[in-house]
Specification:
Chain A: It is a multi-pass membrane protein. The complex is a heterodimer of chains A (326) and B (127). Chain A has 326 residues and is of the alpha+beta class. Chain A has 10 helices and 5 strands. Chain A has 2 domains: 184 residues, Four Helix Bundle (Hemerythrin (Met), subunit A) (Up-down Bundle), CATH 1.20.120.80; 81 residues, no CATH class. Chain A has a 5-stranded antiparallel sheet with strand order 4-3-2-1-5, with helices on one face. In chain B, helix 1 runs antiparallel to helix 2. Classes of the chains: A alpha+beta (326), B mainly alpha (127).
């Protein structure tokens, strides 16, 4: 009898709430729930990228040849350095976040404020870097032509083995083609920005320049893009239909169309996470300043936001690997 | 949570720190070194690592393993998973590992299959 009573009492206690089997607060657990589901979203994107890449395994663009810019170093081939810089920025802002959490545990308001500020600056620098990376990607550098089947041909100087930009060889002729704008003709109907050169100008420039050859999308066994001989190039250039400069959601000068789409989508979604992280950090930064957590008696909010911030860093580690390294 | 106890050792107890601050800086140093190695490999691309092993280049296996190592230290030390109960650690990590491994397996196999169909099929995609 007595044992039955004690069981009931325990059950009552169980259902009365206040139990913490994980020894973690409600807020922290919910943040972990969010992080696990968001991690699955990101892995869905990255695996979709992997799927498309495996599907086009012999013609996928090589990241080293796409992301070659570094601020203030024009024309210098600097693959990877800039993304590496961005990675360090993000890891460092993660560290300042941990230090802020740690200072919060010891109730040191000044230190929390200082480290949070550093974290916000780091996040802002990262978002800014990503914007710069995007603008380079969208603008493009060399330009290319596209066939009806959507293949990209890039141009290489046979002697120097360097990429050649369209503007260095295309022969501009008089053209009657005008940009169709929204206020001309049919209402609410315009066209995409015209490339700087027409396809005829590029082809005639290519034909009259004997050093130029075509670099195809195809990758050889060693992982290099296959270049055609001059004779093959002259034959292939007749298949070119479009001039492509830079990148948009339809086509890009780097290669497979899906490459730019995944680049915009995955780095964009990650950048959006960093941006929201910065906003949330700013909000709690002001909360720290006005003493909200001091009055509350603990700085657990910093810990919860910190979890999110580290998660964003964690995602970048994977994006970095699968977009830029592998 | 005010004065929670941190586990202050990394590398399976090889390195032990006096304070949580020190441990964080050490982890930062470690992550920076790993990232530097990755970038150096990515730029130099040593010829010997470009050979295929288990249907991927050796260099890519190295990148993936180093990434998982980094992910472990970010989750365990920055996100304080090291200090959580093992039940919480397991419910996060096992869920993700299982679901992601499954997704990776099924989509990459499918992608590879579609590549074979396009490559060996009668339709020309090269025009």
């Amino acid at each position: 009898m007595s044992s039955a009573i004690s069981t009931t009492m325990e059950e009552e206690h169980l259902w009365g709430g206040g139990n913490r089997p994980f020894k973690a607060s409600y807020g922290k657990l919910m943040m972990w729930f969010f992080i696990v589901s968001d991690a699955l979203t990101f892995s869905g994107f990255l695996v979709a990228y992997g799927f498309s890449r495996f599907k086009n395994i012999d013609s996928w663009p090589i990241a080293d040849e796409v992301f070659t810019h570094f601020p203030f170093l024009h024309g210098v081939d600097a693959p990877m350095y800039y993304v590496a810089f961005m990675t360090f920025i993000l890891i460092f802002s993660s560290v300042t976040m941990v230090l802020a959490v740690d200072a919060g545990h010891h109730m040191q308001k000044g230190k929390v404020t200082f480290y949070l500020l550093l974290t916000i600056i780091g996040g802002a620098v990262f978002v800014g870097s990503q914007a710069w990376e995007w603008s380079n990607f969208i603008r493009g550098e060399y330009g290319a032509v596209e066939t009806t089947g959507g293949q990209i041909f890039q141009f290489v100087n046979e002697k120097t083995d360097k990429r050649v930009a369209l503007k260095d060889f295309a022969i501009s002729g008089p053209s009657d083609r005008l940009q169709h704008e929204i206020n001309d003709g049919v209402w609410y109907y315009d066209e995409a920005t015209l490339p700087s050169y027409t396809i005829q100008e590029v082809i005639s420039g290519f034909n009259s320049n004997p050093n130029l050859i075509i670099k195809t999308e195809k990758i050889d066994k060693k992982g290099h893009k296959i270049k055609l001989s001059r004779e093959e190039s002259l034959q292939k250039i007749t298949q070119a239909k479009n001039v492509v400069e830079g990148a948009n959601l339809v086509r890009n000068e780097y290669g497979n169309r899906l490459f730019a789409d995944f680049f915009f989508f995955i780095t964009g979604f990650h950048g959006f996470h960093v941006f929201s992280g910065v906003i949330i950090n700013i909000i709690i930064f002001f909360n720290v300043l006005i003493g909200t957590y001091e009055r509350r008696g603990h700085y657990e909010m910093i810990e919860k936001v910190g979890l999110y911030w580290h998660f964003v860093d964690l995602v970048w580690v994977f994006v970095f690997t699968f977009f830029y390294l592998v | 949570m005010g004065n929670s106890t941190h586990k202050l050792e990394i590398f399976r107890g090889l390195l032990k720190f006096k304070s949580n601050d020190q441990k964080i800086w050490a982890v930062l140093l470690f992550l920076s070194i790993v990232t530097t190695i990755e970038v150096a490999l990515g730029i130099s691309k040593p010829e010997i690592l470009m050979n295929t092993f288990l249907s991927a280049k050796i260099i890519n296996w190295i990148f993936i393993i180093l990434t998982l190592v980094k992910a472990y230290y970010i989750a365990w030390d920055f996100m304080h998973l090291r200090d959580e109960k093992s039940a919480l650690q397991a419910s996060i990590v096992i869920t993700l590992l299982f679901l992601i491994a499954y997704l990776v397996f099924i989509l990459l196999v499918e992608g590879n299959y579609i590549y074979d169909v396009i490559y060996e099929g009668f339709v020309s995609w090269n025009f």
